[in-house]
Amino acid sequence: MFQRRIAAVAAYLPERVVTNQELVTSYGLPHSVDWLHETTGVAERRFAGAAETTLSMAAAVLRELIEVGRLRDPFVDVLIMTTDDGGGGDAGEAAFAACMAGLVPALTIDLTPAQGGFSAAVELANRHLDRGCRRVLIVASDVRSRRLRAGQPWGNHQISEILGDGATGVLLERVDGLGAEVPPRCAEAPPPRSSRPSRAAAHANRG
After folding, report:
1. If exposure means fewest CB atoms within 10 Å of the residue's CB, which of 1, 37, 129, 180 is most exposed?
2. Burial of 60 by CB count in 10 Å (0-12 exposed, 13-18 middle, 19+ buried)?
3. How far is Cα 87 from Cα 161, in angstroms, rounded to an integer?
4. Using CA atoms, how far apart are residues 44 and 8, in angstroms rounded to an integer?
5. SS3 content of the chain, % helix, strand, coil (to 5)
6. Radius of gyration of the chain measured on its C-alpha atoms
């Protein structure tokens, strides 16, 4: 009998913190600060910088997963990437992110929100583990602020942009036997990485 376990988790947050007040005053959000906080529960979020993309953030998460998961060789059976940044990215982003991170997955899969996003990625990962795969990586990376940073006006359908940008990932493993232990470093999620980790941890938020 085998078990599945979460062997590592990782996250990346851009350095720039954007408050609700800034959304209203600088980006023209057509709602009040109080309404925004009461409706969403989000006080602040991160916006990607000029050099931060869905691919660069995904690659940063993958490199962290390699380190935290103690992967002596960078081989994984499957890499699943999901993104919803509104940028109309091309297919094959999972393969590009793997290349940037120095990973060698046997199979890369791209999922869109229409296909279920992260929850669908977890279900798909479990199916691959059931079929005998040993390691499956999932990474989600979003740059939802793209239109705002480009100076485009708000629209009624753009409320998701208040959630901000970032990436997260998980390494799932198949292990034999019952009661498999999670390595000490993997028992808790590490603090999100950014270009300046010490400041990023201080600004951790729900957005």
Report:
1. 1
2. buried
3. 12
4. 26
5. 35, 30, 35
6. 18
Q: What is the largest CA-CA distance in the chain?
A: 58
The predicted structure's pLDDT at residue 159: 65
User: What is the phi/psi pair of residue 94, to 5°?
Assistant: -60, -40
The three-state secondary structure class of 89 is coil
Inter-residue contact 79 to 110 (CB < 8 Å): no
38 forms beta bridges with none
- pLDDT above 80 for 205: no
CA distance 16 to 45: 8
Q: Which residues have a Cβ under 8 Å from the Cβ of 35 and sit 6 or more positions away? A: none
Structure tokens at 35: 């309404």
Tokens 């380190």 belong to 67
pLDDT tens column, 55-97: 999 999 999 998 887 776 667 899 999 987 655 455 689 999 9
